Amino acid sequence: MAIDVRIPTILRTYTDGAKAVEGSGGTLDELFTDLESRHPGIRARLVDGGSLRRFVNVYLNDEDVRFLDGIGTPVGDGDSVTILPAVAGGSA
Amino acid sequence: MGSWRAVNLTRMLTISRDLHDAIIEHARRDHPDEACGVIAGPAGTGRPERFIPMLNAARSPTFYEFDSADLLRLYREMDDRDEEPVVIYHSHTATDAYPSRTDVSYASEPDAHYVLVSTKDCGNGDGPVQFRSYRIVDGDIAEEPVRIVEVSKKPSAA
């Protein structure tokens, strides 16, 4: 009963340095709530006001969830979720 | 080998002439849009070795962003090769090579050297170019010295 979640360097302070953790849930939202129960603080780094933070990219099995159902994207056993901070910036 | 370690501890960017020039070339070529990319290196060494120019998905003179599919591919590849993003570079095309508020808000690799190049005085040509390096951690900007090494020549030949 597990979903594999890949954690980027900047969020490993919440996972005791682990590069990957396991979680469960029927949607990404539920998965992040489940992660929060074992890794307090991580959810707020991913979610803001009920949607994904702009600075964070989340992929479900290599697909950017922004092109799926965002935080409501259904997930299940055997799925792989990858979290990566956006690499962006600029003079503006 | 020992000298690399000393360099890392003093928080300086040590980069080969070839990689330094490759970043500037990319910035000049893409001017007036911002250019961006990564130099990956073996994890834990702090040595920039593999030049990976990225597409600016924003194609903008004031913003850059790695395409999300490219970003995933990049991180997978670095993971498979046991590499990390040692340098994350981008250009400013009308302002100085200093991190903007936007740059700071997005900066998410505390161990990376954030290299900024300014093409405001050279455009696509051979004019003067700014090349500066920073650490950006928790919203704080710290400029660091850049040491360029001529690896393709014998050390004493220069």
TrEMBL record, chain A:
Pfam families hit by this protein: ThiS
SUPFAM superfamilies registered for this protein in UniProt: MoaD/ThiS
Domain of life per record: Bacteria
Species assigned in the record: Mangrovactinospora gilvigrisea
Coiled coil region boundaries: none
Name the record gives this protein: Molybdopterin synthase sulfur carrier subunit
Alphabetized PANTHER family for the sequence: SULFUR CARRIER PROTEIN CYSO, SULFUR CARRIER PROTEIN SLR0821-RELATED
InterPro entries referenced in this protein's UniProt entry, alphabetically: Beta-grasp_dom_sf, Mopterin_synth/thiamin_S_b, Sulfur_Carrier/Prot_Modifier, ThiS/MoaD-like
